[in-house]
Structures are given as structure tokens and as C-alpha cells.
Amino acid sequence: MRYILTLFIATTFAPVLGQSIFSNFIAGPQDIGDKLFNEYAYTDAVEAYNRALKKDPENDAISLKIAESYRLLNDPSEASIWYEKVLSNKDSYNPVYFLHYAEALASTQRYDEAKNWYDYYGNLEQEDERAEYKINTIETRSKLFQNVLTTTVAKAPLNGNGADFSPAFYHDNIVFVSSRKSSSNIPIKFLWDNSEYLDLYIYNESGQVEKFDAKLNTKFHEGPLVFFENNTKVIFTRNNYYKGKIKSDNEGVTKLKLYMSEFGEGGWGAILPL
Predict the structure, then answer these.
(1) Residue 3, class by beta-carbon neighbours within 10 Å (0-12 exposed, 13-18 middle, 19+ buried)?
(2) Which of 52, 172, 231, 240 is most exposed, with the fewest beta carbons within 10 Å of its own?
(3) Using CB atoms within 10 A of its CB, is residue 88 exposed (0-12), middle (13-18) or buried (19+)?
């Protein structure tokens, strides 16, 4: 039982699934969606909310929750579709939804529409300077991307499935963060979006990608890092996991912390929290 509980607590932001799974057979799909949403399991929440909409297609509250879920899943294209479905009539909703709608439009390069909704939000929340700032940002961005057609973007040899980001030079190699599928037999997923947990990988001189040091990687998230003092020390991000134990706050949320290690004769030394 302890092992099973550990699997569920292992996310960057998501808490333990506190209620019995049997409650899902009693609760309706909207209640299940709300429960998953509050537990930061947004991919599963979207599935539950879609089931709820089949029973109640005109329920705008559900559609807004789907939009918010896609926003938090970093899918502005889907988010904008769901925001538009509800907010286009400009009824009395929480103003923050109009801000999020504008942000989704801007992220999908629908700049003129985004500026209109930022302006609408700014009229609702006149003390919030973000609307004016965002409009100015769009105008600046449009100038920066005037020559976008002359630029070619291609994957690097180290790129694989999943997200690859935050590269750091390490001797003549590159160490980076990735959510790519690994050969691990640990059957756990990051509940936020059902993705793989982030690990540190190295792209070496021979052009091969492999996991970085086993002492620095765990079954939970490892994130951006920096090497210093001639690559003998490292500071990196990790879930609050120390000495084999995962820790969470009063709300059951496992957050991120910074850790440090120093390289010696036996490789990377003890992992110490800052």
C-alpha cells in the first residue's frame, strides 16, 4: 500500500488523490472533472468535463473549465476554441476569463483579435495594467517577426519524443531536460498532463543521447540545472524528494526545490537541498 500511495503523490504540483476511487462511481462526470481539476490532473479533467457536456451541452461553466484546463496544459489553440464558445457574447463572467482568452489568441498569433479582448478586459479591470502592457507587447512582437519567413527552424539531433528544454554546457557535451519516454519500468505518470516525468539527459561527443547521472535523476521530476566551478558543482531543480522520501505541503502538493551536488573521485556526491 505504501508503494501505491507513493506513485500517486509523485507530481510537481499535483497532490495525492485523497478520496477513494469508489466515489467516482457515485459522483457525476462534472463532479469528477472538478475533483481532477482541483488535483491538477487536467488531461483527465477534460475527458470528464466532455462527458458532462454530453448530458448538459449548454452548461457554460463546464466549457470554461475545459478552456481553463487547456490553458494550463499549454494548448492555446484548444483553449481559444472553448473560450470563444462561451465568451463571444460578452456576458457577465469573471473578467480573468477574458484575459485568458486574449492570451490564448495572442499565443496562436491571432493578434488583432487578442488586442480587442485585451482592450475589453482593460475596460473591465481599469486598475490592471496588464492589458495595456500586453497590447504593447503584441505590437513589438509583430515587428520582431516581420522577417519570420526568412527563418528556418529545425530540430536538433538531440531532440526526441516529448519536450526537450533548458540545455546546459557540460565539458564538451550538452545536458538538458526531457520528458521523452524512457526504459523505466516504474508505471507512473505526471498527472498534470499524463506525460513522462522529466529527467536529465546528456548529448555526448559521439552524438548519442542517454540519461545523465543516475544519482541526480530520480523517478520524479528533475528540471533545469547549471554547472559551475569548472563543472565540478551543479545546482538543479527537483521535486521535493530527499533521502528517498517525497514531501508535500499542507494541501498535499509536492512542489519544486533546488538541490546541489559536487563532483569528486567517486562521481557526483551527496544531493543536498539549498
Answers:
(1) exposed
(2) 172
(3) exposed
**E-state strands within the chain:** 164-170, 173-178, 199-203, 209-211, 222-228, 233-239, 241-242, 245-246, 256-264, 267-268, 272-273
Print pLDDT tens along the chain (274 aa): 343 333 333 334 344 344 444 444 567 899 999 998 988 888 899 999 999 999 999 999 999 999 999 999 989 999 999 999 999 888 889 999 999 999 999 999 899 999 999 999 999 999 999 999 999 988 887 666 666 667 788 888 888 877 899 999 999 999 999 988 765 555 566 666 666 788 999 998 888 999 998 888 888 888 899 999 999 999 999 888 777 777 777 777 778 899 999 999 889 999 898 8
Asked whether the beta carbons of 18 and 252 are under 8 A apart, the reply is yes
The three three-digit cell numbers of residue 264, written as one number: 569528486
The answer to whether 18 and 35 are in contact (CB under 8 A) is no
Long-range pairs, 31-37, Cβ under 8 A, ≥24 = 33/62, 33/65, 34/65, 37/65, 37/68, 37/69
How far apart are the C-alpha atoms of 80 and 88, rounded to whole Å?
11
- Grid coordinates of 33: 472533472
Q: Which amino acid, residue 267?
A: G
| Residue that is written with C-alpha cell 524528494 in the block | 241
Would you call 179 helix, strand, or coil by DSSP? coil
CA distance 189 to 181: 11
- CA 255 to chain centroid: 13
Phi, psi (rounded to 5 degrees) for 233: -135, 150
Domains of the chain are 2-149 (1.25.40.10), 164-273 (no CATH)
